[in-house]
Structure formats: C-alpha cells, structure tokens
Specification:
512 residues, alpha/beta, 2 domains, five-stranded parallel beta sheet, binds flavin-adenine dinucleotide
C-alpha cells in the first residue's frame, strides 16, 4: 500500500477482518497487521495438522451465529464464496448408560429424542417460542448497547420469560423445564463452552442461546474448513483496496496530541494511520502493554491488571480411518457431540477445573466435520476435533500432562464409541500454551475473550464505561471478542466497532 492508510486494524481474527471489510467498503484505505506469519484468521482457520489431505479447524469449527449475524449478512459472506452445510442433527448428548438427548432444527425430531416424551414436549414449546422471538433477542444481544428497540418489540410476557431465562443458572433452568437426566444435561453442558458452570448466574442465558440457535441456523460449517470464512473476508478487504500483512506484530500504539496516530511493529517499523486504529487484541494487552499507561485513567489500568480470564482450553485433532463408531446411532449423524453425563457430572467437572485440577471425566465438545463435509478428509477417511476446558496452567507445565490428558479424552470417547481407538491414524494435541502461541488473544488458552461471568457481560465488557468500542484515547477502538457481544464467530465486535468509528469520522457505512 502506497502512502499512509486511513485505518490500521491490529490483528486479522474474524472480528478484525470484519471491521476492516466494513471500513474498506465505506471507502477507507485499510491496512490489517497480523502477527501470524503463515495465515490470517486467528482462531478461525484450518490446517493439515495431522496427515496430508486431513483439514483440521485450528479453533472455531461450528457457527451457530453464522446465518443470524447482521455483519455476515451485510457483507454477504455467501456471495463471497462461503457455502454453509448442516448435518441432519445439530447436537447429540449421549452418556455411557445409553441415554441420549439431541437438538435438531426439526422440533418434532428433537421432541422424539429428548430424554422422555414430557421433556420432548417442553423442548418443542421452548423452541417454538424461541423461533418467534429470536430476531429481537439477537437484535438486543448483538448490536451496540443499549439496543433497546428490539426489546421493546417483545410483548411483556415474552420479556418476562426472557428475563427469567437470562437470570437463571443453567442447572436451575434445566431442573425447572425438564425431568430426565438426559434432557437436564443439555443446556448447562452448552454453557461450559465458556467458563460458566451449572450453578453460575447467567449460565442459563449462554446455554439457552447456544442451544436454541441450534434450532434455527443450526451448528453449520463452511464447506472446505473454517479458513474459507477467513479467506472470504480477506478477499473482500483486498477487493476494496485494503491489505492484510502477515508476520507484522504490533508492539506499541503511538499517541500524539491526545490521539492514536501510529503503530510500531516488533521489527521497529512505524506505520501511521491518518484516521483511526482498531485493535483486534485482548483488552488488557491493548491497555496495559500497547499503550503508554500514562494515557489511561488509573482506574482502568488497575481493572485491567485484575482482568478475570476464562478457563484454559485443551484441544485434540484426530485423523481417522473411519467415522466414530458411536453407540448412539443419533450421535453418528450429529454435527457436534457433547460428552457430559449428568448435571452432577458437569458440576464436578466445573469444581475440578476451578480448583486448578485436570478433570478426570472431561466434559467434551466433539466436532465431526467430515461427516457433513467429505472435503475435509481423503475418501472414506474422517477428521475429528474436540476440546475440553482445563486450568490455564498446571504444576510442571503442560508438556508433562498433555499426552496423558489426551489419552483420558480418547478413553472418554471410547466409552461412548467402543472401537474408536483403533480408527485413529494420527492425533495432534494442542495445549493452552500452544493455543496462546498461535494467537496472543487466547491467553492461557482462554477462548472466551476473558471470563464470561455475568459481571463481564454487556455494559461491563471489557470495562464500564468503555463498552461502546471507543477506548480512552481518541481514534482508538477495541474490535475483538473482548468487547461486546463477546466470543464466537459472528463478526459483530468488529462490525460494531467499525460502525462506531465510521460514525465518529462522519463516513457512511453503506456500500460505496
Ligand atoms: C479451540 C477453540 C474452539 C472454538 N470453537 C468455536 C466454535 O466452534 N464456534 C464459535 O463461534 N467460536 C468458537 N471459538 C471462539 C472463536 O474462535 C473466537 O471467539 C473468535 O475467533 C474471536 O475472534 P477475534 O477476531 O476477536 O479474535 P481472534 O480469533 O483471537 O484473532 C485475533 C488475531 O489478532 C492477532 N493479534 C493479536 N495481537 C496482535 C498484535 N499485537 N499484533 C498483530 N496481531 C495481533 C492474533 O494473531 C489473531 O490472529 C473457539 C475458539 C477456540 C480457541
């Protein structure tokens, strides 16, 4: 790019790229600086990590918000070549006792397999109601706060019902709605995608959103791997005249006259942005390390020093000779399989991780992308992806524990799918440390952009009153999942931040 860009985006994760695409479309010259030397995308990418021809997603793999995201709809990801695929079943929750509960986009199918017939009926009622109010709930949750207009469109009874769900614990909501062990493990299990246990305030809200969006857009995947989403966004940015530069780690933001003006790379190179700088970084990284702390209010510095992180993530990729032989036939047709035996099992898991111990019966999110998308593996072969939540660090370091813990995970899957182990051709283990070295935002393997506890949400994200993307320095915006609405691939943190920046600059976000 010749001359100074109008805007610099630090980091090419899905939020940084979405922000850059929106700014580029509005006519700004945008330069994206990405630390990773090999690829853009952050936690949204794919690699042949095990054997040739096996495509593994490095982080995010299933996209419940993909079709509902206003950002992706506005940027027309599908028009840029992303093709979404859905499995016949979105999520299966089997247990070693042979019981299973599933979520399908067809409520009648779910109702038949949701613990017992009464629970099936309760699910159908909930999912039918959700279908009517989803657009307004997402309008409230995804847009810059305070997004009150969508809430005002709800009837008082709907508002009351929604508030009752959001304010419950996952375990409490499950026990109120369902009576079978199988049905009760579903929503609290989904909340454990982040650091919310069954007895945590707000965990019902997270479990509800992940469970119920599975009934509308589903846990869809992009044909060819998560990298195709990243590639589509990069193509858009380049199409608008922008540039994504790899191997460019920003070590400092330079302020002049009370305004963010330029960045300095690890290499010492300085690059000026004439109008705005957007950071797709962690909030503590931005406010404590990249900026001179003297420019930030002392209260913000102290809050960032105490910033509560989410748990670590431990991930495994497998190349398989055959599909996973789940005992549950329904699990064989499911996009995602969740291993978590009961509410009690999930409570125990939560206590172990919070206590700093490796869980002995790890809760697992297991993705079988190649069942839906055969392009992920050579003919007849399969990929498998799974993660558990773990303490960010362990005594003696992860190197001492990683392979043994991966054996525990193999054994857990074997218990649900006898004959699984002989199908393994190769396994790749990714510890929390390895995740952080891939992407500096995943501190200690935290995939949630910091803790997702209730006091880190909405106007408290990342810290009050900076929940509207503008940072305490003019011309600087936070556009990562550390900002509202948080983790997940929906692009809305980037989209909202770029919209606010454009408004500040007096530039229309509409297509030029
Ligand atoms: C194992 C795992 C599984 C997940 N599964 C799912 C899933 O199935 N579905 C889902 O929706 N979400 C999932 N997520 C969460 C999702 O991936 C994240 O919420 C999302 O990627 C956040 O996007 P982001 O753009 O804010 O940040 P990131 O994706 O973390 O990208 C940040 C980028 O900024 C770069 N960067 C940071 N600091 C600097 C710097 N100083 N200079 C230059 N570049 C810098 C990083 O290298 C990185 O490329 C998962 C995450 C992980 C780790």
């Amino acid at each position: 790019m010749q001359g100074d860009p109008d805007a610099i985006v630090i980091g090419a994760g899905p939020n940084g790229l979405t922000a850059a695409a929106l700014l580029g479309r509005a006519g700004l010259r945008v330069l994206v600086l990405e630390a990773n030397r090999a690829r853009a995308g952050g936690a949204l990418g794919s690699e042949e990590a095990t054997l040739p021809g096996f495509v593994h997603d490095v982080g995010a793999a299933f996209f419940p918000f993909a079709k509902a995201s206003p950002a992706f709809a506005d940027l027309d990801l599908e028009g840029s070549g992303v093709r979404w695929l859905n499995a016949p079943i979105e999520s299966a929750h089997p247990a070693p006792d042979g019981s299973v509960a599933i979520i399908s986009r067809d409520h009648d199918v779910t109702a038949k397999h949701f613990g017992d017939p009464a629970d099936g009926d309760a699910w159908r009622r909930l999912a039918t109601w959700h279908g009517k109010v989803e657009a307004d709930i997402l309008g409230f949750l995804l847009r810059p706060l305070p997004a009150l207009r969508p809430l005002l469109r709800l009837f008082p009874l709907d508002l009351f019902r929604l508030a009752r769900i959001l304010l419950s614990t996952g375990g409490g909501l499950s026990e109120r709605l369902f009576r079978s062990v199988a049905a009760r493990r579903v929503l609290p299990g989904l909340a454990l995608h982040v650091d919310l246990g069954p007895d945590d305030t707000f965990s019902a809200g997270l479990g509800y959103m992940l469970g119920l969006t599975a009934t509308t857009g589903g846990y869809c995947i992009p044909e060819g791997g998560a990298q195709t989403i990243t590639d589509a966004l990069v193509r858009q940015i380049e199409g608008f005249g922008g540039e994504v530069r790899l191997g460019a780690r920003v070590s400092q933001i330079i302020a002049k006259d009370g305004r963010a003006q330029a960045v300095k790379l690890d290499s010492g190179e300085e690059l000026r942005a004439s109008r705005a700088i957007l950071a797709n970084t962690g909030a503590p990284k931005l406010l404590l390390d990249l900026l001179d702390r003297k420019l930030i209010p002392g209260r913000v510095v102290r809050a960032m020093q105490r910033f509560p992180r989410g748990w670590g993530t431990f991930k495994v990729d497998w190349a398989l000779d055959a599909p996973v032989p789940w005992s549950s036939e329904l699990a064989r047709r499911s996009a995602v399989v969740h291993a978590g035996d009961s509410l009690e099992d999930l409570r125990r898991f939560t206590a172990q991780v919070r206590g700093g111990d490796l869980p002995d019966n790890p809760y697992l999110v297991i993705g079988q992308q190649s069942v839906t998308d055969p392009s992920r593996a050579p003919t007849g072969k399969h990929t498998l992806w799974a993660y558990s939540r773990v303490p960010p660090s362990l005594e003696g370091g992860w190197a001492h524990h990683a392979e043994r813990f991966a054996d525990t995970i193999d054994a857990r899957i074997e218990g649900l799918a006898p004959g699984f182990r002989p199908t393994i051709l190769k396994r790749r283990v990714v510890s929390p440390e390895a995740l952080e070295s891939m992407d500096a935002n995943l501190v200690g393997g935290d995939l949630g952009g910091g803790s997702n506890a209730w006091h880190r949400q909405l106007i408290f994200r990342p810290i009050f009153p900076y929940f509207r993307y503008k940072m305490p320095l003019r011309g600087l915006y936070l556009c990562s999942s550390y900002a509202h609405p948080g983790a997940g691939v929906h692009g809305m943190c980037g989209y909202n931040a770029a919209s606010v920046a454009l408004r500040d600059l007096g530039v229309s976000p509409s297509k030029t």
